Amino acid sequence: MAQRALLKRLERAEEAAKALAPIQLSQFDEDALAIYSSMAYLDATMAPTYHDVEPTAAYARGKELRNALYGPTTPVHLNEHLKRYSRASGEFELAFGREPQAGDILRYEHVARMHRSENYAREFGRAIEAWQRQLPFLTCPLKFEDGRLFRRLSPEKLGAEPTWEEDVRIQSGERWLTIPEVLANSDFEKMLILSAVVFLGVVGAKHQCRPATEESLQRPEPECEPLNEPTGFLFGQQRFNDFLVEVMGA
Fold it and tell me: What is the mean pLDDT of residues 4-28?
């Protein structure tokens, strides 16, 4: 099972390499990809917003390169992967590069490894530097300092200055506790937080999981190790999927 998943990941990587073979990535191309991947972190409460960036050449080039690497975005109502997506499956997929199957285990350690500050510092650093080079006429609405992400919010009153607010949604503890099965099976009064969940497969069109038992935790782990360095694109894609599932009920 793990070998098949690894082969599929290698096949996807080869296909992406072939798609980009005729493309020589310039500094502008790399910047455009970084800027496009960061769009998942912008919303209408920020200054500037997604709509300020969308008309720019950097955004257009980033979208073009994104489609060459990963294929065009599938409409929500046709996206079968998104219909199966859950908070837990999204974390597993970020770590292992595939959707979970029945019996797979997601541990807090996997989530902490993916969402450690070093990974975000690297990816947000690239996006912010790219923004400063390619969009100097727009203030970058994101900053990453001391392991924390801040968003530049539009002023609530006319004439007021924008304010900076921390976005705690990238923190590993927050990511873990927003998995419904973890939240429902943790005892905060006793400071007992569920440490792992086991997947049951796709039930009722969605990936389902339950608290992992001691017996299930003794089973062999998948052969493939979690990814050490998730990319800005994968972080952004997870953020976008979470938004669609939570807000739009995808």
Answer: 58
The answer to whether residue 224 sits within a structural domain is no
Alpha carbon of 184 to those of 41, 179, 187, 210, 247: distances in Å?
Answer: 27, 9, 8, 10, 20
The pTM of the full predicted model, rounded to 2 decimals, is 0.84
In a domain, 142, yes or no: yes
Q: Which helix (DSSP H) or strand (DSSP E) does residue 59 occupy? A: helix 57-70
Cα 157 to Cα 103, 138, 161, 164, 211, distances in angstroms? 52, 21, 9, 15, 46
Q: Which residues form the domain of 209?
A: 2-216+230-247
Judge whether 225 lies within some domain: no
Domain membership flag for residue 129:
yes
Please say if the pLDDT value at position 7 is more than 50.
no
38-55 pLDDT tens trace: 999 999 999 999 999 999
Checking DSSP bridges between strand 148-153 and strand 196-203, what pairing results, if any? Answer: unpaired
Number of domains in the chain: 1
* Interval 132-178: pLDDT, tens: 999 999 999 999 999 999 999 999 888 899 999 999 999 999 999 99
